[in-house]
Every structure is written in structure tokens, then in C-alpha cells.
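#structure-requests
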Amino acid sequence: MLDILAGAQDAAPAAILKATADPKTAGEVLGGGKAVALLEDGYRQIAGIPSALTGYRQFFSAIAQPEHRPASFHCTTGKDRTGWAAASFLLLMGVSEEDVLKEYLLTNEQLVPAMKPLPDKFKAAGGDPEILMPLVGVQQSYLGTALHEMRTRWGSIEGYFSEGLGLDGTTIDRLCTSYIEEASPTSDLTAIDILVEPDDTMKAKAGEINERMLKSIPPPAGFSLDEHHQPHITTEQCFVHTEAIHHLVEDKAKGVGIAFVVCKPGPELLDFQAELIDAVRPFTGSGGTAEAFVRTEAERDINPEGIAWAEDFVRDHSGADYFAHVTVGLAMLDDLKVMEAEPLEPLTFGAAGLAVHQLGNQGTAAKLLKSWRA
């Protein structure tokens, strides 16, 4: 048993007990939007207070071990502390945020009816059952608050697990692979990007520029640098045979422009790219389609240029033709011209690690398949 909220005050489970114990005064505690604010604050604490980080580190460390699989976990109502455990785990394994949110909101269909005796008892005691509903069910803002806290403090779901929870690479890799059952592939080929993950210096600069891009073209047409759009420096894009991915990672619009921070590669990076291309070649294929890419609710279509780029990357964009860059977003051409005219101070940065991602639209690093930290 793990006490996730040991360091929290006025956490939601305690508030439920307090309110149901005294229905006549519950309005003062939960009415006027206070219940929603209480839950949002609870999720903020779930994602970041020390007792929560300690508890989730122990939880994920345990279920990464073979003797603890399969795993069953729960909390008082099975939706808040359990909800964050499930949501963060699914995100780590590459499930899209849209799909995670859909699963989370199923609580209102599948759990809330089973909780009906609670508001009924509350009503019988003279309370207004409606003020309990934000505590009994879930709202998008609850999970959104936890995700915001996670991104603010650690940047990404990978950062939360490695830096926030303090899990090592071996444990994270075991979590990402042990609970996934291979399905029949919808495509014989998967589009991948083998990339260098820049350090915090470049990530900060990329994020700063991306914020300006989003003012020109907001989502969903534009994109934020997030789990599905990781800042990176591509060393190789290609189509690989889907069934060979496991062996690969184990063995080794009009008027719109896309913006890059251009990097000058040193000889070490070019040598690495050449060796990488030779090592990956036995696993590669040709003729991949949009089915080989990650598609989300926001980006259902894969642009033809991105498919062609993955197909022809080694031939057209390696060696002497290598264009090392960090993609930072989309903007209207007029806005890009203004930014290009502004001086950009040169900066020196290093590599934080290497990773293999499945490609999304616009050549984005959309789904983590494997990472190696520096």
C-alpha cells in the first residue's frame, strides 16, 4: 500500500468523507466551483508533491519486475490517484494524449453509476447531491492540470519518469516493453527517425521560438513542442520492416512555412551517421505509405513531402548533403520573414541522448520506440 497524498492537505478523498459526514454544511466546502478547484489542486499534487513522487516511483519500480506482472492497482474510488498512474503509464508507452483522455473520461460512464448510493445517501441526509458530482466523476481539466504540472516541471512524460520519479533507463525500457502485446501490423513498414536528443540549452531555444510560431499559426494547424513533437536532430529517417523494429532497437498549406534552427555538424556526427546508416540498412524497406506514420486526432493526414523525405533521406540528405537542424514549428511566411530578419545569437549545445521515434506528420518525432541517455 502506497500513501500517494501523505504530504497533501485537503485532498479529494478526505474532502468526500468530510462533506458526506455533514451534508448541511457541505455547500460551504464544495459549492460554487470549490469542488472542481479542489480536484484540480489534488491532481496538481498527485503529479508533483514529494510523497506522490515517492509512491509512484515505488509503484512503477515494482510493476517493472517480472514477478509483479500482471499488475492490478486501485485507490479509494479508482479514478484520481489510479487515474494518474494509468494515464502517465499509457503516455510513456506511446499512447496518444487524445486516446488517454478518452479512456480517462470513461470513468463518468462506467464508475459514476456504481457510486450512486453515495449521492443518494447524501440527499436523504438533507444535502444537494449535485455538489458531489465533481468529486464522484472526472473532468478533462483534472487530468489536464496534472499534465500541465508534469510538463512545467519536467518537460515531457519521459522527463517525469526519469527525473521526477528517478527511474533509471533499464526500468523505463522494461515498463515500455513488458506491457505491450504486439498486434498484427497495419503496415509492413514503419517510418522511423533515429535522432540526437539536444540538451536543455537547445530545448529552451527551440521552445522560445516555438511560442512565436504558435502566435502565427495556433494549433491544430500549428504544433507545440510536446510529446508528439520532440525537438531533435535527425541523423537518419527511413522505412523499416515493422517486425524488425524490436531487433533494430535491441541490436543497436499555402503561405505556410516550417522553421528550423540550423546546426553545424562536427565530423563526429557525420561519422556516426555513416556508421548508423550501414548498421540500419539490413532492416530497411522501400515504398512506405501514410500507414507507416503516427496519426493523431489533430493530424490525421500525412503530407506527401514527409513520406518522400523518409523514403529518400539516405540518398538525398546524408553525408555531404546532411542538413542538421531542429524543427521549431509552423508560421505564416510573412511572420517567418520578420523572424528571419532578426539576429539569432549562436549557441553551443550538446547531446542529451539518442532515441528512435516513429515519425508523425511534418517529420515530427511522434512516438518514442527506444532511447539511450547520455
